[in-house]
Each structure stands twice: as structure tokens, then as C-alpha cells.
Amino acid sequence: MISRWKEQLYGKHVNVCVTNEHMTSQIYLYYYQKLYHPKAMLTKKNKQVSQDIKGALMCVNPKCVAMKSGKSARFRDTLSSLAVGLSGLTQCLIDSPFPTIFPISNQSIQH
């Protein structure tokens, strides 16, 4: 018989927080604005073509401190995990998600 005492012990006392991941990869958490993929200019068949860089997101707010310092691009996965974590934390602490991440209250954010 296999001993499963850890599973039984930890399975009894587990805290679970379910959070909504809506818009977490598209919203800049510091200004609550939509983020955009940066573009790179490539040469294909002797033509200049712009292509989206899918692994990064960039803030285009002219008031953004990160943009003013030239560091407005962020990795998508890092930003998304921060947004999901903060959304879950606010859901646990104050029983309310971020308004821009909550799907019903973000009608002002357009593509």
C-alpha cells in the first residue's frame, strides 16, 4: 500500500482563489490602458515589411515614465502573471477584482 499521508494532510486545508484572467495580457496595470505589440522592420523579398513582435507589449502613453525613459516594452508573460496575481490578491483581500480586468466594467477600453 502506498502511503499518501501528504496528499491527505494537505488536501484537507487548501485555500483556493479563482480569478478571472480577462484582459490581463492586454492592460498596462500602471495606467490601465491597452498595450500594443511593438513592430520591427524586416526586409522580405527586397521590401520593407513591418511585423508585430508577439512576445512583448508596449505602452504608448506619452505621460508614462517608462516610455519617457525608453523602457516601455514589457515581456507579455511577465506582465500577464503580474496582472493575474494582483487580480487574485485584490479578489481575496477586498472581494473585488480590478475594474479594467473585470469583463463587465471595461466597456471604455476599445481595440
Architecture overview:
The chain has 111 residues and is α+β, with helices and mostly antiparallel strands. The protein has a domain at 20-94. It contains three helices and six strands, in the order H-E-E-E-E-E-H-E-H. The strands form three sheets. A two-stranded antiparallel sheet has the order 1-2. Strands 3-4 form a two-stranded antiparallel sheet. The chain is elongated, with a radius of gyration of 20 Å. The relative contact order is 0.21. The model is unreliable at 105-111 (pLDDT under 50).
Radius of gyration: 20 Å
Along the chain, the helix and strand elements come as HEEEEEHEH
Number of strands: 6
In the predicted model, the low-confidence regions spanning at least 5 consecutive residues are: 105-111
Strand content: 15-25%
| Mean pLDDT across residues | 71
Profile the largest sheet: 2 strands, antiparallel
Helix content: 25-40%
Structural class: alpha+beta
Strand order of the largest sheet: 1-2
Globally, the shape reads elongated
- The rounded distance between the terminal residues' Cα atoms is 57 Å
Q: Tally the helices: what do you get?
A: 3
